[in-house]
Amino acid sequence: MRATTKRAHARVESDIACIVDGATEVRIRNLSLGGALLVGPHGLGEIDDTVSLEFEVGEAEPMKLLGELVRVTDRGPLA
Question: DSSP letter string over 19-33?
Answer without folding.
Answer: EETTTEEEEEEEEET
